[in-house]
Amino acid sequence: MINGEEEIWKPLPGVLGVEVSAFGRVRTLDRTVPRKSGTYHVKGRVLKQSDNGKGYLKVNIPINGKSTTKKVHRLVAQTFIPNPDSLPEINRKDNNPLNNGVSNLEWCTNEYNIAYKEKYGTPAKESTPKSPVFAVNLSTLEVSRFESQIEASRVLGFSDGNVNGVIKGRLNQTHGYWFVNDDGHAVDVVKSKLHDIGGTGLKIYS
Fold first, then answer.
1. Could you tell me which CATH class the domain 128-205 is placed in?
2. Reported CATH class of domain 9-120
3. In whole angstroms, how far apart are CA 195 and each of 73, 74, 114, 137, 201?
4. Closest Cα partner for 39 from 30, 27, 52?
5. How open is the CA angle 23-26-27, to the nearest 5 degrees?
6. How confident is the model at residue 126 (pLDDT cuts 50, 70, 90)?
7. I need a labelling partner for 124 at 20 to 30 A (CA). Which of 29, 55, 81, 174 fits?
8. In Å, how far are 13, 77, 87, 100, 161 from 81, measured between CA atoms?
9. Which secondary structure element, helix H or strand E, spans residue 148, and what is its range?
């Protein structure tokens, strides 16, 4: 569980002993490795990811006994998203190259990818407004206030691109939270949201 949401893992197609998470994480499974003197047991682990120098996350996975570098967003898409038309590229709905959650990815053509970025502008990480936001925990109905989308993402433990996606309407919720900018109408909007999901009052934690 991550922030109250179950993390789903699936085997990476065509690669034994490697699994990919719908949240964009990659792990190896426990395995037995042959050696000249016998065999030894290797415990599985979640693999460390790093920047590939172009703003995208990469990870090294074992393939046929050799460490091979792969882009994380492509592993997630190959594992979770059908691609019957063999589309060549992957678009991020929030334009944030660090958000590799499956709900943020879609297979596409190069033309679509370029047009999408032109329409929605700079990556969410760069364009995130530094204005206060309310966060509603959809499980507990607790309402929290943060000074910015970045602060909310840091405290709650997921990408600020996800927060921005909810506020902009590209996502209905993320990791069990719903967000709205703290403007002149925010309190009324939050009250309405709580009423819709069964809340009986408004208590804000900051």
1. mainly alpha
2. alpha beta
3. 37, 39, 40, 13, 8
4. 30
5. 130
6. very low
7. 81
8. 12, 5, 11, 12, 20
9. none
**This prediction's pTM:** 0.58
The rounded distance, in Å, linking the Cα atoms of 191 and 188 is 5
> How far is the C-alpha of 19 from the C-alpha of 28, rounded, in Å?
6
Paired residues of 67 in beta bridges: 62
Residue 14: is its pLDDT beyond 80?
Answer: yes
* DSSP result, 94-143: T--TT---GGGEEEE-HHHHHHHHHHH-S-HHHH---S-EEEEETTT--E
The span from the CA of 36 to the CA of 39, in Å, is 8
Q: Do the first three CATH levels of 9-120 and 128-205 match, i.e. the same topology?
A: no
What are the residue boundaries of the structural domains of the chain, listed by start? 9-120, 128-205
pLDDT in tens, 50-107: 988 887 899 999 998 899 999 999 999 999 999 999 999 999 988 888 889 999 999 9
As given in the structure block, the two tokens for residue 144 are: 């929290």
For residues 134 and 145, the answer to whether their CB atoms sit within 8 Å is yes
152 Rama class: left (phi>0) / alpha (psi -120 to 50) / beta: alpha
Contacts of 148-153 with C-beta under 8 Å, sequence gap 24+, read: 149/179, 152/179
Nearest to 47 by CA among 32, 57, 36, 55: 57
Task: With beta carbons less than 8 A apart as the criterion, state whether 176 and 1 touch.
Answer: no
